[in-house]
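Input sequence (496 aa), recorded before submission:
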Amino acid sequence: MSEAPQPTTAAEKQSSARVLPALILAMLSFSVVQTAVVPILPSLARELGVSGSSITWLMTANLLSAAVLTPLLGRFGDLRGRKPMLLISLGGLVAGSALAVSTHSFTWLVVARVLQGAGGGVLPLAISIVRDELPRQKVTGGVAAISASMGVGSGLGLVATGLLLEHWSYKSIFWMGLAFGLLAVALVAFRVPTDPVTDKDGGADPLGALTLAGWLSALLVAVSQGNTWGWTSTRTLGLFAVAAVVALVWGVIEVRVAHPLVDMKMMSRPAVAFTNLAGLLIGFGMYGSFMVISNFAQTPEKLAHYGFTATVLHAGVMLLPSALGSMVAAPLGALLIARRGPRLPLVLGGVLGAVAMAYLALRHSHEGDIYLSSAIFGLGIGLAFSAMPAYINGAVPVEQSGIANGMNAVLRTVGGAIGTAVMAAILTGDTMKLPIPVSLPTLDAYRHAFWTAAVVCVLAGAVPFLIRTVKPATTVTTGDRTAAPIPGREPVRTDA
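Predicted structure, token format:
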């Protein structure tokens, strides 16, 4: 091996050009698949002959699977290599999509959505691969691009759903997921190099994994079904109690075992803990707002005297600017992180999200209002997503990168589940009296939902001020040479 401390410029370009597109496509594949069914849940209920409350399991099952499998795949990536776990993650997405295409059974469709949830492991694994494979000066931009791809894919998924349903059946949505997944598998298999295992001395923690899955399952089911079962029902309160008890047991286990799934000391570091809180709030704002905006746009104007009577496609197009905003946010976020540290883009992300939602609370009578607020919101979400991994990577060693980013992704998912549940409760809690058997929220209900999202985004933007500094990271040994500290692993300025 050459003794040169840095690879050549040509080698750096080749590495970035080969690896990064494959990882971005993998992230897009999961985010598109996760959100594509959201606008068609009512039509799927009619198509499959199930109730409106039952059909929500297509989202609940996916969120639950992603929340449980994301940290597990991230940790096994740290232990056994990131590329094999990334292929397993994408393999679950492909298997789920193939099953969804082949079945007409609601039960098997729920199973398919569980399998697709394995794709949640893409985010922490891809971020870890970027840190391992890209040259130092490309890491910040690469991580920002992958993180922002989550917002891009979510917006594109909503548009693609409407476009496909204009010409084909709901099966076309899952064909799209299958095609995306197969292409991502091929690119990862051939373009992403086999990475060295970074934690050879680490061990598995089956009891920690089981208890983590237990409390996350109880929490997400309670949150997702609370509107249907009733928030004070025995089932809902019982599941919240189970989640609290099992989470406590999980924490005790993780403190005492020799090789914990999640290092609680690492999780308690301010840069990690507060970034995870920001992730929870941003997830609440993003998923909740997408649902509210889509429902508002599809509201029949003649009945409600608001809304735009939009089709699924039209509603998706209204949210398309959010995907474009997230695209712009990736390079902008990387630039801000390099110059000022991750605080500024995370603060801006929360502020822009709040501005977008407050604008909709005040102005929502023209389609242009939706397009403008969607673009601002997407820019804010993209900036926030690009900043969170920078905070986390600057506070944890390389061998814990996968699990640390995995837990952040889990909390975004939990926040999304809470956000959609809270927004649904707001909308269903204040409905109109109509001469036909249709329940529509009042305009005030939508205003309250928009203001709620704005407040949550403000809180997300305030969280970074609780993070003072990130401790300097040690250098990383790779092969027979010691590499320079990786961006996000250096002392991070947070006083921007």
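Checked by second reader. Residues 1-8, 471-496 have pLDDT under 50 and may be disordered.
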